[in-house]
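Troubleshooting entry. Yesterday's outputs looked truncated, so today I'm pasting the complete records for two proteins to confirm everything comes through intact. If either block looks cut off, that's the bug. Protein one:
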Amino acid sequence: MPLRGSRAAGPWGRLPPPLLLVALAACAARASEITFELPDNAKQCFYEEIVQGTKCTLEFQVITGGHYDVDCRLEDPDGTVLYKEMKKQYDSFTFTASRNGTYKFCFSNEFSTFTHKTVYFDFQVGEDPPLFPSENRVTALTQMESACVSIHEALKSVIDYQTHFRLREAQGRSRAEDLNTRVAYWSIGEAIILLVVSIGQVFLLKSFFSDKRTTTTRVGS
């Protein structure tokens, strides 16, 4: 069952046959990667149907907004809190489902009054199946199969690194844009202050060199 509270992917019926086989093979281990906007004073929850005994991992990171922190809470179908952290920038939590049902995890920005956040999370349900299942095999992996397994593991590491660096790049760009905005406002403020001080000095110097007229009053005898 796809993750509720998120956008569903495009229909698989439009994929070419080779890509369709890859997509169906990936269904054994579901993974949802979503980047969403979390407004100030807001809370966003997601739900996932999980089978008992399934190993799951929740990883999240705040990309933009304020101090780059958010509240996160994970509950099982009975409402028992499995994970709860306040004002975290990023974190990862792994657990094994204790029962069948709908698990709920929420991100909250209710402590922020003015700043909205951009949050990324990756929720993995289950583990990737092996490329070459060991059941019903009487021989060891061939050299070609071993090479395929090594390449597969290396590609998974590359995907993880790419995701990590994309998040760092997005966060760095947000910090740079925020710094640029602050520098621009500071420069405008300095220019205004300099203009006011210059005008004040001109009027002050003018008052030093201006002639003061004296009025003489004659008193009749």
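Protein two, checking that the full record survives here as well:
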Amino acid sequence: LVAWKRNCSSCCLLSYRSDRNETRKLNCSERIMWKYSPVSDPALRIYPVDLRDEGNYTCETVNSEGNFHFNFSLTVIVPPTVTLTHDKSRVAICQASAGKPAADISWIPASNHSSEEEFHHPNGTVTKVSYFGWAKSSFPSVTCLVTHPATNQTLFMDMT
């Protein structure tokens, strides 16, 4: 017997019993399935993964050697949507929207005239906005660097 369980009430249960060649799927969406065949490789596949899939999963195997439990924690990472704009007062605005975890934003040239805001969304994603005061600068351009576990992006804007 091989069974995958999500550790919450009324969550998905995916199981295979080899002596009966029987598979069962309870409370599972179509996105949750066996990666290959449970006979040869009982790996779990979640595709496409969703923020709601985040959590703890247990794989339980039962054979002649005994019962075995393997615990896995699934963390979903969401790359942010990145934009670079400016307003009328020559403030550059770099925004990393709806990322998980929050992105880090830095500027070239480096400046202590920048400020940041962070907005937390109900689905667990975060939007970070960084403002770069450009009015007193003699540099002709600005570069926004966005660092995130899923992506690193560099955006360039000519300020002349």
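Both blocks look complete. Sanity check on protein two: The chain has no helices and 14 strands.
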